[in-house]
Specification:
The chain is α/β, with parallel strands linked by helices. Helix content is 46%, strand content 17%. Helix 3 links the parallel strand 3 and strand 4. The structure holds nicotinamide-adenine-dinucleotide (NAD).
């Protein structure tokens, strides 16, 4: 979507106008601090050189170093990375962790690269941005089509460049080189804590609800596994190739092993396949978009039947769709709250790296629960107090914290 960033800032402006927030400091939050674009030459397996465009947007670091994931996807654009970097700034403030916001990306279809090409691309990205990232500058993490292995390559390349072992330059690393226990499941576990709180506020019993999850990657798959293990009924899941639906509930463990064997969740156990569009419109209580932006838009919003949308992916609901859904009384739990578990445990990983002292998984998860619960309580109280929706409440919490930091530091 062209000029998505303009829409995102419009949303910030509307929130501030609605809540009568006026601060000169807000002007700083309407633009990224730094926008970087680097050419990344990569030697391909056929002996030819291909040059990729690499992006990094460092949005704001007033509350701490820039922090944000790295995305490898054919649809990556600078406009998209700006939006994602802005949301990271808001998310870290909502979660109340000492980070700013950033994001990076490369427009590439990783499914068309060999493992060697992928490694050389990742190392080229690291060299391209080596002067701008670092444990106290900007700390990448996995996002769409990047993972712990990607982070290991970045950590290795960066450590060679700097001449010292630097695990804290990235989070979401393998545990063998300084990754945190519990990081791979942190985003989904954080979302699960939020889900339980929301259901208790709405007085919706676990055995009375069903869920549909769009996206079956790090976030969607782990979320589905977590809620399934907790006894919830998941009736539909999907990945980039389509979805499956069983109104009686899916065995998510079996779906996962099917995906591991065949590469997709479709064609599972004789079930009829559905499209990603159909999944969004199923008669479920909770819809969990965990793939890409703008899945729920003006055209399909009217057909959505869920009572709750838990945004585990970033930016899945357009502002136009949100306005329609709100009129229908749908509760949208915004991305900047629902999926903050990932960056919270990234923060724990960074703390462990800087201290060279590693925590047990139970400590990681206990601290995550505390941090997520505090964030949820603060946002929910703000929603009640201001009589606004949850996204507005989250933005209010974040803007207030960011403006306070800007004021006290001065410019
Ligand atoms: P991933 O690459 O592990 O998985 C992406 C999933 O989306 C895959 O299952 C893929 O098949 C599916 N997908 C791709 N295109 C699709 C389409 N058009 N329709 C439906 N499904 C599609 O990525 P991830 O890390 O799980 O990220 C998913 C979302 O969660 C993104 O919005 C990301 O920014 C957000 N997020 C990720 C983290 C994290 O810790 N990884 C943290 C916070 C937010």
């Amino acid at each position: 979507m062209a000029d998505q960033f303009k829409g995102v800032i419009n949303q910030l402006n509307k929130t501030c106008a609605l809540m009568k927030i006026e601060h000169d400091e807000l002007e700083i939050l309407r633009k990224p601090d730094r926008v970087l674009e680097v050419s990344l030459p990569v030697l391909m397996d056929n002996g030819r050189i291909k040059v990729f465009d690499g992006y990094r947007v460092q949005y704001n670091n007033i509350r701490g170093p820039y922090k944000g994931g790295l995305r490898f996807h054919p649809a990556v654009s600078l406009d998209e990375i700006k939006c994602l970097a802005f949301w990271m700034t808001i998310k870290c403030a909502v979660a109340d962790i000492p980070y700013g916001g950033s994001k990076g990306g490369v427009a590439v279809d990783v499914k068309k690269l060999s493992q060697g090409e992928l490694e050389r691309l990742t190392r080229a990205y690291t060299r391209g941005f080596a002067d701008f990232i670092g444990p106290y500058r900007d700390i990448p993490a996995p996002d769409v089509y990047t993972n712990a292995q990607t982070m290991a390559w970045i950590m290795d390349e960066y450590s060679h460049i700097k001449g010292e072992n630097t695990p804290a330059v990235v989070t979401g690393k393998p545990v063998e080189i300084g990754g945190s226990l519990g990081r791979d499941t942190a985003t989904s576990l954080g979302g699960f804590f939020v889900l339980e709180q929301v259901l208790s506020k709405l007085k919706l019993a676990k055995n009375k609800i069903s869920l549909a999850v769009q996206g079956f990657g790090n976030v969607g798959m782990n979320f589905a596994m977590t809620v399934y293990a907790a006894g919830y009924k998941i009736v539909a899941v999907s990945d980039s190739r389509g979805g499956i639906y069983d109104k009686n509930g899916l065995n998510i463990e079996k779906v996962l092993s099917h995906k591991q064997t065949t590469g997709s969740i479709i064609d599972f156990n004789g079930l009829k396949n559905i499209t990603n569009e159909q999944l969004l419109e199923l008669p479920v209580e909770v819809l969990v978009p965990a793939a890409l932006e703008n899945a729920i838009h003006e055209k399909n919003a009217g057909r959505i039947k869920a009572k709750v949308i838990l945004e585990m992916g970033n930016g899945p609901t357009t502002p136009e769709a949100e306005a329609k859904l709100q009129k229908k009384g749908v509760l949208i739990v915004p991305d900047v709250l629902a999926n903050a578990g990932g960056v919270i445990v990234s923060y724990f990983e960074w703390v462990q790296n800087l201290r060279h002292y590693y925590w047990e998984q139970a400590k990681v998860e206990g601290n995550l629960e505390k941090q997520m619960t505090n964030a949820f309580k603060k946002v929910w109280q703000t929603k009640q107090k201001q009589n606004c929706n949850l996204r507005t409440a989250a933005y209010l919490v974040a803007v207030e914290r960011l403006v306070k930091a800007l004021k006290v530091r001065g410019i």
